[in-house]
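Session log. Operator J.P. requested a structure for one protein chain; no other inputs attached. Running the standard single-chain path with token output.
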Amino acid sequence: MSAPPASLPSPAPPASPSSPAAARPALDWRLRFAALSLIWGFSFLLIKVGTDGYAPFQVTLGRLLSGTAVLAVAMAVKRERLPRTARTWGHLAVAAFFLNALPFSLFAYAELTIPSTLAGICNATSPLWGMALSVVALSEDRPTRRRVAGLGLGFLGVLTVLGAWQGFSGLDLTGTAMALLASLSYPVGWIYVRRTLAGSDSSTLALTGSQLFLGTMQLALITPLFTSAPAGFPLLPTLAVIALGALGTGLAVLLQYGLVTEVGPTTAQMVTYFIPVIATAAGVTVLGEQLDWNTPVGALVVLAGAALTQSRPRLTSATAQPARLPQPAAEIGQPQVSGSRWR
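Structure written below.
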């Protein structure tokens, strides 16, 4: 959903097809890439359906709970060990807030008043926020003319989506602001992760599973304070919340990191550009949401700007570039920025 993340620690480079150690997955990476795009693209629709039967905090709690369960099973199968130091757990708690608890809740609240299509497009602004923030917070990220142009182009696309020339007429400003704030939360979290956990000796799976567990605990404490127990468990919203977590927050993470390991972060990160397209198609065809001309046009401009902000200068033999963590895309899941997010 919501949107896709950087991995910790960096996975091993993709195995050469000729290498005897290269175990070819049963499912071609292109099919897994397509599945990941669909899962994260439909996350916004699932949020909308979930909020038809549950309060936003309850949707987020159910999502995190089922997503954590999937990763717990994966960790048990691979016999992964949990992080051992209090320092790591403390940093993961902060990461869980900015990468899971806060954005997931904001998107759920936003979709009470805005279409899932608009939420999906707002999610696509994460790379723009990430580029702007990383210039300030990360010394290795230097602005270039192309990236600055991408930032300006992207926010021009945002204004187009929102219909700025009409004075934002008919737009729910509160819901839209929540969706944009959720998208901003992802790069804030990933910049924090890159500055504090890049040297961790725990595996990516262990860190991700622990982070989701902490996010679940945070929502378990907050939800009873702001909501009452549901009167019932309506079938469709319940299935939507379970699918949102098990697929969009659990399985999607496993697919994402598998792709990063096999084909590299650059190719895997391209899933980011399919998410708003699928979210828009799902909202229009399944939920019957209205679509004005400026929404798809603005979304294309946003994606073009985001692509420019992710561009890097070519390395020459005399140029060295600091090692970078893989950057999965934003889900609505889930992860997709400079110092992206876990999904």
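Operator note: Confidence is low (pLDDT under 50) at residues 1-22, 315-343.
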